[in-house]
Structures are given as structure tokens and as C-alpha cells.
Amino acid sequence: MNNPNRHQYDNVADMLYDWNLNKFLMLGDGQHENGLLEDYLTYYDSAFGKLLDITAPVPGNHDYYWDWEQFQLHDHPFAGSNGSGYFGYFGEIANPPLGYYSFDLGSWHLIALNSDLFLNFDITEVGSPAYEQTEWLKADLASHPEKKFPGTLVFFHHPLFTWETPGAPGWTSPELIPVWEMLYEAGADIVLNGHSHNYQRWAPQDPYGNYDAGGITQFIVGTGGYYLNELGHPPVPGSFVWGQDSDFGALKLMLSNDSYSFEFWSISGDVLDSGYNIACN
Ligand SMILES: [Fe+2]
User: Fold this and answer.
1) Ligand 1 centroid from CA 147, angstroms
2) What whole-number distance in Å separates Cα of residue 278 and Cα of residue 128?
3) 226: closest CA among 8, 57, 68, 10?
4) For a FRET experiment, which of 139, 166, 221, 262 has its CA 20 to 30 Å from that of 248?
5) Below-70 pLDDT ranges, the chain
6) How does DSSP classify residue 71?
């Protein structure tokens, strides 16, 4: 397999291991170019396998054998019946076959969504995998109220908001607006995404990109290895705060009772972005 930056994701994995984490949230596309089982076992596992017992994964588009000849997403076969490499490798922790689930960490509720289902199926069509996922999400949010869980963190592969080089603006996925609407109404605090191969932090905002102090803070952490993509060119979107496209690294989140702190670490050991004691919504 062609992977010129293999050592980069080895270094990210080693850094994460040294952090002695409670959880490692794997934001999708853990294995490039395609999430074949043998590649997960050969490459991903040799770096990130040591974190497997604390890993909470979500699938990305490359976990569905992304094929440029099948670029038409609506022609893509039923996503839930694919992802066999991803689900074969992660097994029960990925909650096969649909890949969404939730769990609690202290006073935080964490929700793992399968954004491939949102992008491949019509969310408004009753009974579709995307519709079913939103029904599940609605019930999950209702049974984890803000009163009991001041912190809500949601992670899935595709970002609603991204700022990348030309060609990429279309990658902002409007299919995810209804999902953000549900999360916003429920008072979710953090959304974590991958897909864009860089690091981006966005100001708290509503699902339409308007600054809102009580809105959702979105991070993109697509810096696990393989390659990086350039951030966009001006104009900078109003709610974009900071990003970088030159260093591989990882985001460390420290979740407290009703607040959180974050640090983005490069593999060279520098904290490139940080925020401390941010109150939950
Ligand atoms: Fe992706």
C-alpha cells in the first residue's frame, strides 16, 4: 500500500499512547486509501492497535471503499452493507452494522454518528438509514437531558463547516444541517469531525454559520497521518477561528463537570491551539 507518511501516523499514535487517555475518538477514514480489512490489520493496527481497548470509532467515506468511479453518492450501494473492513476490524466497539452509538463519560454524553448514512440516504424519507439514525438521535438526546449531562460531545466524520483550498467548498455538507439543528436545540457543546486533512477550530455557531455564544463549537481534526490539505484562501468564513495545515497531530480534550479544555498538539510536541475552562452550554 502506498503510504509515504506512514511514520507520521505512527508518531500520532505514540503521542496518544503516551497521553494515557480514557478514550480515543477515531474520527473516520482511519485507513487510507480504502478501509479494507487486511489494510486495517496490516497498517492501522500496527500504529493504533495499542489504543484499541479505549477506541471509540466512527466510519468515514474511505471505510466504504470509496471509488472515484462511483463518485455519485446516490448510486453508492447501501452503505450499511459495506464498511466490512471497518466493522470487521473494530468489531463490537463500532456497533455494526450501522455504526452509531452513544456512551457517557462522567457528566458528559458522547454520541458517535455515521455521517456516511446522512450523505448517502435521504434524511426526509421515512425508513431510510439516514431517517432511522435521526430518530435514534432524537431519542438518545431526549434520554440524556442537559440537566443530567451538562456536556454533550458529538463526533462524526464529515464536517458541516470546512474551509479548504479551492475545489473543497462543495465539501461543506448541507445534508448535515438537520442533524446540527437537532444537536443545537439539545444544547450540544462540541462537534468533532475529520475528513478535511488539517486542523480547524470554529467559533460557537448555529447550524447556519451564525456566531452564537450558546452554539456548537466545531473542531476538525484530520491530522492523523497520510497527508495534509491546505486551508482555504480568503475570505475567511466569519465563524472560523484558527486552523493549521502543516503539522500532523491530535486534539486533547479534558472534560470536567460543566466545562472543558482543549489543546491541539503537533507530533513535534508543540501546543498549537488551546482553550481552557470553557463553560458548557
Ligand atoms: Fe473522509
Assistant:
1) 34
2) 37
3) 8
4) 166
5) 1-7, 65-81, 166-171
6) -
